[in-house]
Amino acid sequence: MLNTDILLTLKINNQLFADAKRITLLKAIYQMGSLSQAARSIGISYKSAWDAINDINTLSEKPFVQTLTGGKGGGGATLSPYGIRFVEMYDLLTKMQTNAFNILSDETLPLNDILKVAAKVSLQSSARNQFYGVITSININEVAGFITVLLQDKQTEMTAYITHSSIERLNLMIGKEVILFVKAPQIELLDHADCNHYLTHVDSFVRSKHWGELTLSLASGINIYASRAIEDFKQLTIEHGSPLSIYINPENIIVATIV
After folding, report:
1. Residues 152 and 132: beta-carbon distance below 8 Å
2. How confident is the model at residue 1 (pLDDT cuts 50, 70, 90)?
3. 3.10.560.10, 1.10.10.10, 2.60.120.200, 3.30.470.20: which CATH number matches 10-101?
């Protein structure tokens, strides 16, 4: 992985509003409660610090720094709640930029797909199984129902249970991209006549005294992870490449998207 140093610069009306140096100054003010001490700690003059804060406060719709004139060392200063939130947002954007650059080497990820990029850059989940796809049908009444999603392999369909309120809140519609999350212990190792029944092949099997985890694959290459108590595997033939039928309950699928 490349050792990148990405510096975010924000301008308002073509004037410098915030950059890494100004964010460092804001953080120092928050920690020390003094503009002069903050300036000294980061190696700039008091005038340079005052000019920077004056520019920020002038360009911003709300003040970032509130100062108290007079007093030893040039008076006190504090960040407003709005200023604190902005610093947090700046750090978040910087982290997302860095993560975005780090996925450049992942040639399997299309960079023109905003949902996949956003998930890779900023979305972390405890669910091992994350499936990308497009909604192909919605069957729902006043309370709840099901959506069917064509997964990223363009051939596998997966059905998820969802409430009417979630349909509205996520603004779901046919053709919209979604991510489906399923925890590994919720993958059922059995045949089922209902939807979400898949024939997979075993790629690997990792076990401990009490727990085991399977890495499975569909014929199209999509990986599925299944984990459970080791006793549940005893009646199964588990070897590399051996076939295994699985079932995913639509009620165990979490649906996410960019609203």
Report:
1. yes
2. very low
3. 1.10.10.10
Burial zone of 72 (CB within 10 Å; 0-12 exposed, 13-18 middle, 19+ buried)? exposed
**Which CATH number is 114-256 given?**
2.40.50.100
pLDDT of residue 125: 59
Query: How buried is residue 73: exposed, middle or buried, by Cβ count under 10 Å (0-12/13-18/19+)?
Result: exposed
Band (84; pLDDT cuts 50, 70, 90) = very high
Give per-residue pLDDT as tens, 93-105. Answer: 877 676 666 666 5
According to CATH, where is 2.40.50.100 located in the chain?
Answer: 114-256
The sign of the torsion formed by the CA atoms of 20, 21, 22, 27 equals: positive
- Asked if residues 136 and 174 have their Cβ atoms less than 8 Å apart, the reply is yes
Question: Residue 117: which region, alpha, beta or left (left: phi > 0; alpha: psi -120 to 50)?
Answer: alpha
Left, alpha or beta for 71 (phi > 0: left; psi -120 to 50: alpha)? left
Domain with CATH 1.10.10.10 in the chain: 10-101
Provide the pLDDT confidence category of residue 163 given band limits of 50, 70 and 90: very high
Mean pLDDT of all residues belonging to the chain:
85
